[in-house]
Specification:
Number of helices: 11
Structural class: alpha/beta
Strand content: 15-25%
Number of strands: 20
Bound molecules: pyridoxal-5'-phosphate
CATH topology of the largest domain: TIM Barrel
Number of domains: 2
CATH architecture of the largest domain: Alpha-Beta Barrel
CATH class of the largest domain: Alpha Beta
Distance between the termini: 18 Å
Oligomer: single chain
C-alpha cells in the first residue's frame, strides 16, 4: 500500500512501450530485438520496463553495472538473458559468479579475471571507432578471447543518429571481425543503428532511447509513441503585478499583471535550468510558459488564461522529447534519465 502521495508523478504508458518495442523488433528483421534498461530503464523504472517487455517477447536485456543487474535479476525467466555492459571489476566477481546475468567483457584485464575464475558465459565488446569501451578492433581480437564462452560479440556505433561515413567504417570493421571469428551471435545497433538498415542488424539489436519514446532518427518519428508524461501539482496560486519580478535573480519582470501558479517541480527532478523561461505546461491543449528561473524544487508558470486553476490541481509538463530537447538544450537521453526519485511512477 502506498502511504505517501508525491506532488509530482510520471504517467507511463505500458502499451506505448510495448508498441515501440514491437516496431523496433519488426525493423530489426531477422535479428532478435533486445532492450537497454540501464539507468533504471532510462528513468522510467527498470523492473516495470523489463516485466512488460519480457511479456511482449523480448529476450535480451542490458544494464550498465551489477547494482542495476541485482535490481532486475529476480525477474529473469528461462531463456531470457541479462548482460552487464561494464563487464566485471574485482569487486563484482562474487556477485557476478553467483548471478544469472553475464558480463560484457571489454578489456584484457576483465577477460583474464573471468577466465581465471572459470566464469562461463560472457559477452565481449569490441571497439570499432568510438574509443569508449571494448577491445581494439586493430588488435588480435580472436586470440585475446580464445577459450571464452562468448554468447554475443558486440560493438557500439558512435554516430548512428547522424549521416556520417563513420557508420559505414564501423560496420566494415565489425563485419570483418565476424568473418574472422565463428561465434554464436553478433550485435552492433542501438536505436538509431536499427534505422540505418538491415546491414547493421546482425543477430541482435539493442535499442534503448526509442523504446521510451525518444526519436533516434526522422525515419522512426511517425512510428514511435510517447511513453512518459510528467505531471505536477500546483502548490500556490498568486498574482504578479506589473513591475514585479519572479524567482531567483529576478530574471523575469512583469510588463503587465499576470496570474501565476507555483509548481512542485524543479531542477532536482531533472527539470534543469535550461527550461527557465523556455519550458511550459499544457492545460486543455494550451501551452502556458515558465516564468523566470527554475528553482531546485519549484517552478512558476503563467496561468493568466486559466482562472479556475487552483492549489492542488495537476498539470501536464510539456515533455514531448523532441520539443523539450530543443527548448532546454538537453538531449532526449538527459530528459529521460534525469527523471528523478521524487516522482511517483504510475503505469497505465
Ligand atoms: C545505451 C546503449 C545502447 C542503447 O542505446 P540507445 O541509443 O539508447 O538506443 C545500446 N548498446 C550499448 C552498448 C549501450 O551502452
Amino acid at each position: 500500500m502506498q502511504s505517501y502521495i508525491a506532488p509530482l508523478r510520471l504517467r507511463l504508458d505500458g502499451d506505448a512501450l510495448v508498441s515501440n518495442w514491437r516496431w523496433l523488433s519488426a525493423m530489426s528483421g531477422g535479428a532478435a530485438c533486445g532492450a537497454a534498461i540501464k539507468a533504471n530503464g532510462y528513468g522510467l523504472g527498470s523492473v516495470e520496463v523489463m516485466r512488460r517487455l519480457m511479456q511482449a517477447g523480448c529476450r535480451d536485456f542490458f544494464v550498465s553495472n551489477w547494482g542495476e543487474a541485482a535490481a532486475v535479476e529476480p525477474l529473469l525467466e528461462d531463456g531470457v538473458s541479462l548482460s552487464v555492459l561494464h563487464g566485471v571489476r574485482a569487486e563484482d566477481m562474487t556477485q557476478a559468479l553467483a548471478s544469472r546475468a553475464r558480463p560484457v567483457l571489454s578489456t584484457p584485464v576483465q577477460i583474464a579475471r573471468w577466465r581465471a575464475a572459470g566464469g562461463g558465459d560472457c559477452d565481449v565488446m569490441v571497439d570499432t571507432g568510438m574509443n569508449r569501451l571494448g577491445l581494439d578492433w586493430r588488435g588480435d581480437v580472436a586470440a585475446t578471447v580464445e577459450g571464452l564462452e562468448i554468447v554475443t560479440l558486440m560493438s557500439h556505433l558512435a554516430s548512428a543518429d547522424e549521416d556520417t561515413p563513420l557508420n559505414a567504417t564501423q560496420l566494415e570493421r565489425f563485419a570483418a571481425l565476424r568473418e574472422q571469428m565463428s561465434l554464436r551471435r553478433y550485435s552492433l545497433a542501438n536505436s538509431a543503428g536499427i534505422c540505418l538498415g538491415s546491414g547493421y542488424h546482425f543477430d541482435l539489436t539493442r535499442p534503448g532511447l526509442a523504446l521510451y519514446g525518444g526519436i533516434p532518427s526522422p525515419v522512426a518519428a511517425p512510428h514511435l509513441c510517447a511513453v512518459v508524461q510528467p505531471q505536477v501539482q500546483v502548490l500556490q496560486r498568486r498574482r504578479l503585478l506589473e513591475g514585479d519580478s519572479i524567482g531567483y535573480n529576478a530574471t523575469f519582470t512583469a510588463q503587465r499583471d499576470h496570474e501565476v501558479a507555483v509548481l512542485n517541480l524543479g531542477y532536482a527532478d531533472g527539470y534543469l535550468r535550461g527550461f527557465s523561461g523556455r519550458g511550459a505546461v499544457i492545460v486543455d491543449g494550451e501551452s502556458l510558459p515558465v516564468l523566470g528561473r527554475v528553482s531546485m524544487d519549484l517552478l512558476a508558470v503563467d496561468v493568466s488564461t486559466k482562472p479556475d486553476l487552483a492549489e492542488g490541481d495537476w498539470l501536464d509538463i510539456a515533455y514531448d522529447l523532441g520539443m523539450a530537447s530543443a527548448a532546454s538544450g538537453l538531449s532526449q537521453y538527459e530528459l529521460l534519465t534525469g527523471l528523478g526519485a521524487r516522482y511517483d511512477r504510475h503505469w497505465d
